[in-house]
Design brief:
alpha+beta, 7 helices, OB fold (Dihydrolipoamide Acetyltransferase, E2P), 40% strand, 352 residues, 4 domains, rod-shaped, five-stranded antiparallel sheet
C-alpha cells in the first residue's frame, strides 16, 4: 500500500480543517456520533472525536443515555479535560444542562412559580428532592406530609424559598404551595357549602373542646357537644386522627371564615325514640355518667340523661353507706318526662 502524498497546498488545507484552539472550560458544540459502555463519542471538530463519560452525560437516571443525547443531534458541551495522549477532549453535557437548569430555576423563583420535585431521599430535618436535575432540600417544617415513611419517588408541588448557585444551596417549600392552594380551596368552599349539608371529612386534630375535620381544604370544628348524643368526656374517646367521617354542616360564618359541624345529627335523636318508651312513673335502672356539686347525671335511656338532685344523692349515699361514682347503676323513678323540652325530673327515693 503506497503512502498518500499531499501537495503543500493540500496539506495546509488539511491542517486548516482541524485548526482549533479548544481548552478546558470552553463551551463547544458537538454532534453525537456513537455510544460505548463508558460514555458517548462526540464530534466537536477536533483532530479526534471527543468523549462524554456516562456520569457527565446523564441528568435524570430514569432517562437512558441514548434518549438524553440522541445520535446525530447537536448539543452544547463543556470541555472539562484537555487532550489526552490520544488527542481526545473530555466533555460534560450535564454541567451545561445544569447551568441552564439553574438559570431556569432562578427565573421560576423570580416569578414565584410552582415547580414539581421528586423525593430522592429522607434526611435529618426533611427530604431531598430533585427539580429539573438539581437536588434541593425541603425542611420538615415546610412539608405537608403525614409521614415520611415510603415517600421516596413521590412528587411534590413546591415553591422555591432560597437558592445560591455558587454554594449549591437550594431550599424549597411544599407548605407554601399547600397554603396558597388551601386559601383558594377555602374561598371556593365557603361559596358553596350550605347549612344542613352532609359532607365527608378527615379528622386532622383533636383538642379538649372538640375535633377539627378537614372537609376539603378547610379545617372545620366539630364541637365536643356535637360528637354524640351520649356524654363524651373527651373527643379522643370517640375519634382519632385520620378517621374519615360523615358530618353535617351546622354553622357557616362567612365573616369569621368558620364552619361548625355535627356528628350526632346524623344519628337518631334519642329523645324522640325515648318519647314512646318512657312515661311518668316508670322505674328504670340508670347509669351515672357525671357527678357535679349540684347532683349527678344519670343515663336512663341510651343518649338520654336526667339530673338527680344533690340532696337525694347525698341521702341515698348516707342510707347505703357508700359513695356513688361514674359508671355505677342505680334504680330510678321518672317523676316527669318532657321530651319536647328535653327535661326529666328524677328520683331515687324508696327505690331499694
Amino acid at each position: 500500500m503506497s503512502e498518500q502524498k499531499y501537495t503543500d497546498a493540500e496539506f495546509e488545507a488539511l491542517l486548516n480543517k482541524y485548526d482549533y484552539s479548544f481548552q478546558k472550560g470552553d463551551l463547544v458544540k458537538g454532534i453525537v456520533c456513537s455510544y460505548d459502555s463508558s460514555g458517548v463519542i462526540v464530534d466537536i471538530g477536533a483532530k479526534t472525536a471527543a468523549f462524554v463519560p456516562v456520569k457527565e452525560a446523564i441528568i435524570d437516571t430514569a432517562v437512558s443515555i441514548e434518549e438524553t443525547l440522541k445520535k446525530n443531534n447537536e448539543y452544547e458541551f463543556l470541555i472539562i479535560r484537555e487532550e489526552d495522549e490520544d488527542g481526545r477532549f473530555t466533555l460534560s453535557y450535564k454541567k451545561v444542562a445544569m447551568a441552564y437548569n439553574w438559570r431556569e430555576l432562578e427565573q421560576l423563583k423570580a416569578e414565584d412559580a410552582t415547580v414539581e420535585g421528586t423525593i430522592v431521599s429522607v434526611v435529618k430535618g426533611g427530604v431531598l428532592v430533585e427539580v429539573k436535575g438539581v437536588k434541593g432540600f425541603v425542611p420538615s417544617s415546610h412539608l405537608k406530609l403525614k409521614s415520611t415513611d415510603d415517600v421516596v419517588g413521590e412528587t411534590l408541588e413546591l415553591k422555591i424559598l432560597t437558592m445560591d448557585i455558587q454554594q449549591g444551596n437550594f431550599i424549597l417549600s411544599n407548605r407554601k404551595v399547600y397554603a396558597e392552594d388551601k386559601e383558594e380551596t377555602k374561598k371556593d368552599l365557603f361559596e358553596t357549602v350550605k347549612i344542613g349539608q352532609i359532607i365527608k371529612g378527615e379528622v386532622v386534630r383533636i383538642t379538649d373542646f372538640g375535633a377539627f375535620i378537614d372537609i376539603g381544604g378547610v379545617d372545620a370544628l366539630l364541637p365536643l357537644s356535637q360528637i354524640s348524643w351520649r356524654w363524651v368526656d373527651h373527643p379522643s374517646d370517640i375519634l382519632k386522627v385520620g378517621d374519615i367521617v360523615d358530618v353535617e354542616v351546622i354553622v357557616v360564618d362567612q365573616d369569621k371564615q368558620r364552619i361548625s359541624l355535627s356528628l350526632k345529627n346524623l344519628e337518631k335523636d334519642p329523645w324522640l325514640e325515648a318519647k314512646d318508651k318512657i312515661k311518668d312513673g316508670d322505674k328504670i335502672e340508670g347509669t351515672i355518667t357525671r357527678i357535679k356539686h349540684f347532683g349527678a347525671f344519670v343515663e336512663v335511656f341510651p343518649g338520654v340523661e336526667a339530673l338527680l338532685p344533690n340532696n337525694e344523692l347525698i341521702e341515698y349515699q348516707n342510707q347505703k353507706n357508700l359513695i356513688l361514682k361514674v359508671g355505677d347503676k342505680i334504680q330510678t323513678t321518672i317523676l316527669k318526662f318532657n321530651p319536647d323540652d328535653r327535661r326529666i325530673s328524677l328520683s331515687i327515693k324508696n327505690e331499694e
